[in-house]
Amino acid sequence: MNKALQSALARFEQRSGELFVAGRTVSDLVQEHSAPIYLYDRSVLARRHQLLREALPGDVKVYYAVKANPHHGLLRELGSLYDGVDIASQGEMIRALEAGVPAARMSFAGPGKAIEELRFAIGRDIIDVMAFDAAGRITSMRAFWSADAIRRG
After folding, report:
1. What are the percentages of helix, strand and coil residues in the chain, rounded to 5?
2. Do residues 90 and 116 make contact, with C-beta atoms less than 8 angstroms apart?
3. If we measure between CA atoms, which residue out of 110, 112, 109, 115 comes closest to residue 142?
4. Is residue 40 a contact partner of residue 77, using CB atoms and an 8 Å limit?
5. Burial of 75 by CB count in 10 Å (0-12 exposed, 13-18 middle, 19+ buried)?
6. In degrees rounded to 5, what are phi and psi of residue 107?
């Protein structure tokens, strides 16, 4: 067994050759839900989050990148654990909203955003941090975004 797999499995309980996730055997979960299946244990997610928090200064904000895994249940859990979620597209915004992540806890940043995506985000107050990839982008946005909302950083 390689070290990466061994390290990952060490986070879960094992008894009599059975792997347990959230107190249930993986074989039972596969029978119930069929395979392939992705399994996450809330307690492991919370423990890993806590370790990350302890390793960082208290004033550091930690956001989960929706791009990493946009699964509804995972977004719901991590959206409540972390300071917010980092979204890179309108599709990710919709996934996060559907999972119950408040718009105010979303960060939409990075280059190459379509005007339609920006309108969608602004219309839902999703803007936390935004990077403009061209000076012309600010000019084009003034048509639908209030002037006091545009700030230089």
Report:
1. 50, 10, 40
2. yes
3. 115
4. yes
5. buried
6. -115, 125
Share of the chain above pLDDT 70, in %: 82
Q: How far apart are the C-alpha atoms of 15 and 9, rounded to whole Å?
A: 12
pLDDT digits (tens, 9 = 90+) for 43-74: 889 999 999 999 999 999 999 999 999 999 99
Reported as a single tens digit per residue, the pLDDT across 23-45 is 899 999 999 998 888 888 898 89
What's the rounded Cα separation, in Å, for the pair 106 and 120? 13
Cβ atoms 39, 74 nearer than 8 A: no
CA 47/CA 56 separation, integer angstroms: 15
C-alpha span between 17 and 62 (Å, rounded): 36
pTM for this prediction: 0.75
